[in-house]
Amino acid sequence: MSGREESVRGKATVSPEVGPTSSGPEDLPVAPDGVAAADGLSDGAGDVAAAGDVPVGAGGVAAAGDLAVAAGDFAAAGDVPGGAGSVMAADALPFVASGIPKSDGPLVASSAATTAETASAPQGGSWRAQQELWGEPRWRRWVLASSFARLGGTMAPFALLLAGERATGSFAQGAWMASGYAMGMAAAAPFRGRTLDRRRLPGGLRPPLLAQAVVFLALAHACYFKASLWVLLPLSVVGGVVPAGVVAAYRAILPALVPGGRLEAAFAIDAVLMEVQWILGPSMVGMLALAHPTLGVGVIALTGLSALVLNLFLPEREPLPGPRVAATLASLAPFFRGLPRLLYLSSLAVGVSWGVVDAALPPRLVQVGSRPEAWGALTALLSAASAVGGLLYTSTLKGRVTLDGVILRRCMGFLALWGVLLVPLARVTSLWALGAALAAAGLFLAPQAAMQATLLQRQLPDGRQAEGFALSNACFALGLGLGSGVVAVLLETAGPHGALLTAGVLPVLVALGGALAWRSRV
């Protein structure tokens, strides 16, 4: 998906199946203000078609894989949408003129309104763009509310592991509880997200946040009184089901709160903020566990209630129009075509690796002569390094639209580096060395998460944004559950160090496979 581009004078044709296409080099539309030349050169005021990072001019940009045409209602398969009224789709994803998604086909990019806002967004340096974003009151309120909603999810795996060990006397059974929580969330998230797409947001988040508080209070009491795994495991699964889709719903309303030209920076900052949650969440669990291992589970209930109150200060987004889709597995098929399929696989790979690390590091710390509660501090270190990496990535965004191919190549490279740098965790034998390995890997975590979110938002139709983001969260949660399950199985045979050897395998395989698959289509 490099940005080799070419545009010549001619006329666009429209296929009834896939929207605007061209039958040859003479059939392509021309921007009214100029002609975009090949190899990234541009001609004409305000209309640019570039090969890498495409600045958004007054006339807008239309860039797509090996072809870009400026300022028109022409959409092509491959890279970033640009120019008012134009929409792009990737790989097998069809596209239509003026950004109106086909209700009966695979997914297309988000609305033309967002694209039009992108075209008119002011240019400036990366720090200026961030300052303008933080100057938006709605963005600041969104950050506060979404942070409390996410905090419980960052606390849950470690909290359940420690509370389960306290209740049952076994880290393996605590790992099963963390796995059950993740699997419950993975199973419910896409369909919960679809339900939330049909509701006013964030008002529609009230029932799941209240249910989260009730379930985790019950789970904290069950762990405190040392209930059996047969009680704790079902409660853990329900604890994953009830808040499923909530985090995705916050991301789904973000385009309604932030101007389109600042969305890429918003998603990048959001990835950094997510790492802040991963610093705070496990650290809080570790500190609370010093008093009692079950306190972390009880605090998760309070985070949901806090988000519920803060939602009152956010504007309501009305449900977007669109046909109702039956809640079946077959209805999810359009999400697994083209570029979204690769993005969801990446989320799964990161989830598996994180699940392995999250479940295997506490007993590994015991092996190297430390305490399992130290995992909270190590998680904070990893997330701090990830936040630094995210900030460095954000500093490269200068109010320009980056082509999908460029973002994807970087994303796959960072995913591979994350996996490779997890391997030393199984070999080093000191607390400091474990921290250094985690910090090195963490540098690449937030940037690739930001890139995934940016690419995914461009592919999802307006009426299924919460569902699409929830499916990404479900893939991560499924991976988290699988990773925890792998540790639960290997802990008694291969030991924590043997389980950790599996952490980096899937990210590297997905990154290599994704890069090769994408290269083969361009």
TrEMBL record:
Signal peptide from the UniProt entry: none
Official protein name in the record: MFS transporter
Biased composition (Low complexity): 109-121
Transmembrane segments: 209-227, 233-253, 295-314, 342-362, 374-394, 406-426, 432-456, 468-491, 497-518
Record carries keyword Transmembrane helix: yes
Keywords: Membrane, Transmembrane, Transmembrane helix
Region (Disordered): 1-39, 106-126
Statement: the UniProt record of this protein carries the keyword Transmembrane helix: yes
Domain of life according to the entry: Bacteria
PANTHER family per UniProt: MAJOR FACILITATOR SUPERFAMILY (MFS) PROFILE DOMAIN-CONTAINING PROTEIN, PTHR23542
Gene3D superfamilies in alphabetical order: MFS general substrate transporter like domains (1.20.1250.20)
Organism: Corallococcus soli
